[in-house]
Amino acid sequence: MSRLFGVLMAVSVLAGCMQQQVGQPSMWYAANQAVPPTATKLVVCHGFGCARRTSVSLSPKNLEKLRAILVRGRSSPEAERRAIGKAVAWMERTVAPTVGSEGDIGGLDIWNSGVAGQMDCIDESTNTTSYLLLAEKRGFLKHHTVQRPVARGFFLDGRYPHATAVISEAETGERFAVDSWRKANGELPIIMPLQTWFDEKPSV
After folding, report:
1. What is the DSSP letter of 140?
2. φ, ψ for residue 84 (rounded to 5)?
């Protein structure tokens, strides 16, 4: 019974993604009882729906590594998006020993709802946003700003509810999804134009 309850709770949380609208990242954190990052500290969500929150402090060495990854993308917006993907993957690997998320698998995994270290779309989009906001606070991003996560799908349209982190290209205003949910811990997230992401019709 407890396992079934966990699955139902996971579905409920994911459906709740659809209540999230475009706006400031702070609104997303408030809606999901998550904690925004500072310039040196993260509170990583896991356990589905940010049910578990683990504080992670980044050392000067960690911060320099993050800067070094992102500075390689300063030549163009396209290069910075590639660097952002590498930075998000590196951050996932860096926080994993503290969070216990080394074994987090990608994609639909409602049977692991509530399990420490496992993440759903709320956790993933929140954490990716936190990693990027920290980078933004420290001046590591040149061509993009960090936006509030958004969501798509509501079962009736044949798609599973799903949220993603979002960045906006500074010069053009074009928004891009930074979707780490479909990948296992430490793998490169999927980065694509946000409208393309909205138009996708994956099986899950």
Report:
1. -
2. -60, -45
Quick: pLDDT tens for 133-183.
999 999 999 999 999 999 886 533 444 678 999 999 999 999 999 999 999
What spatial distance separates the first Cα and last Cα of the chain, rounded to whole Å? 25
Residue with structure tokens 């993957």?
Answer: 89
CA distance 33 to 50: 7
Alpha-carbon dihedral of residues 67, 71, 77, 81, nearest 10 degrees? -50
Q: What is the pLDDT of residue 116?
A: 81
> Is 166:147 a contact under the CB 8 Å cutoff?
yes
Q: What is the pLDDT of residue 105?
A: 85
What does the alpha-carbon distance between residue 70 and residue 10 come to, in Å, rounded to a whole number?
34
Residues of the chain with pLDDT under 50: 1-20, 155-159, 203-204
**Dihedral sign computed on CA atoms, order 168, 62, 104, 117:** negative
Question: Smallest Cα–Cα separation from 119: which of 184, 22, 196?
Answer: 184
Contacts of 37 (CB under 8 A, 6+ apart): 43, 130, 131, 133, 134, 137
Query: With the C-alpha atoms ordered 166, 170, 172, 173, is the resulting torsion angle positive or negative?
Result: positive
SS3 assignment, position 12: helix
Q: Which residues contact 25 (CB under 8 A, 6 or more apart)?
A: 36, 129, 133, 146, 147, 148, 149
| Residue 13: predicted pLDDT | 43
- What does the pLDDT read at residue 110? 66
52 near 116, Cβ under 8 Å?
A: yes
